[in-house]
Amino acid sequence: MADHQEASITLPSDPASVTAARRYVVDLLAEWGLPAREDMAETVRLIVSELATNAVQHTFGQSPTFTVEIRLERDEQLRVGVTDSHPRWPQRLPAAVQQDNGRGMVIVRSLTAEQGGQVTVTPTAEGGKTVWIVLPWTVPVSS
């Protein structure tokens, strides 16, 4: 396998794009050797779902698209980023018992930590941001 593989997809900020982003990432990971049934693939699918949902719901129409980037570096590290053009960074919201939303980043941070990874947010040159997750890459050995 190559030292570095990467791919990206840009989608409209529309709720239907969340499904497309999930499908794209799971298919790509399978192509790179991580079967969809593996725990890590499911974790990444859930994380992408949360980040894509945030990019659609919390940009208030100020980001007409969002981009999902996936990078596999030296078969050691998987980086997934979701970029939108809205300047507001994710906020930690208090966990209210009756709260219907606002827990996306809590879920992302928790799932990422369970896999031994980390979450970061970086600004884009255009004034938006990218939320990155970095996970150790482990592909099950085929028997």
UniProtKB/TrEMBL annotation:
One Pfam family matching this protein: HATPase_c_2
GO molecular function terms noted in the UniProt entry: protein serine/threonine kinase activity
Keywords: Kinase, Serine/threonine-protein kinase, Transferase
Domain Histidine kinase/HSP90-like ATPase, chain residue ranges per copy: 11-133
Gene3D superfamilies: Histidine kinase-like ATPase, C-terminal domain
Keyword Transmembrane among record annotations: no
Designated name of the protein: Regulatory protein
Higher taxonomy: Bacteria, Bacillati, Actinomycetota, Actinomycetes, Kitasatosporales
